[in-house]
């Protein structure tokens, strides 16, 4: 299902679209009236969609879980973004979850879908919270969302609070301080305003120095990145097929990263055995980078 299909389904079921002006309260009230599926109904619909590609079954699965998307979206209201936009993004995550849901895994759709719903909302928040991206790596994203919840008061954290947050999130104190600085900052335009007078101070762009202008430095960076990629390819080639598959699905695949338990069930071993294989494979690959 696409967002357009979902919106069509909402209209067909007399439900307003959450982003429509003035319809958010009506939308929330309407989705709360949609009956919750029993475990048996959910399994039946999920199998119909998986085995027969029945879009009506997928629509029912999505509609019955729209209230859960609203519940998750309420937890992100403190980021200054529209509730309707958050719900729309969460609905996209819900549709992705329905598409990938396997009813034979023995879990309810809501437990599986929460990851996809939050992932879409997180991506939307990070894209729109500031003009300049505040978190680009996985570690920075984790810090961004957890640090906002961890701060107990306004203003800068003291040393004890910084240490506590770093310990709880398993990151360095330097990373905590850097993210706190980003959270406390604001966007500043580099270019001068159109109506700026001659007496105004120079815009920030006037002070910027382009350190990447040296072609030799750019070539050196590109060469180093290519070297690292070559080492990664060599490291994967040295592994046996099972180890290579585990590393690829745990670390390199885009989107859903396989869990230890998922791989354990697939290979017929314990999750601890998968962890050991993963650790040994990473050790072998790491040796190439430090050689």
UniProtKB/TrEMBL annotation:
A Pfam family assignment: Sigma70_r1_2
| Positions of region (Sigma-70 factor domain-2) | 61-130
Q: In which broad location class does this protein mainly occur, judging by the first location in its UniProt entry?
A: cytoplasm
User: Mind listing the UniProt keywords for this protein, alphabetically?
Assistant: Cytoplasm, DNA-binding, Sigma factor, Stress response, Transcription, Transcription regulation
Q: Where is the RNA polymerase sigma-70 domain?
A: 85-98, 259-285
Record has Transcription regulation as a keyword: yes
Q: Name one GO molecular function term.
A: sigma factor activity
According to the UniProt record, which residues make up the DNA-binding region? 260-279
Annotated function: Sigma factors are initiation factors that promote the attachment of RNA polymerase to specific initiation sites and are then released. This sigma factor is involved in regulation of expression of heat shock genes.
Q: Which PANTHER family match?
A: RNA POLYMERASE SIGMA FACTOR RPOH, SIGMA FACTOR RPOH HEAT SHOCK RELATED
Family that this chain belongs to: Belongs to the sigma-70 factor family. RpoH subfamily.
Complex formation: Interacts with the RNA polymerase core enzyme.
Stated name of the protein: RNA polymerase sigma factor RpoH
State the taxonomy lineage: Bacteria, Pseudomonadati, Pseudomonadota, Gammaproteobacteria, Lysobacterales
Q: What gene is it encoded by?
A: rpoH
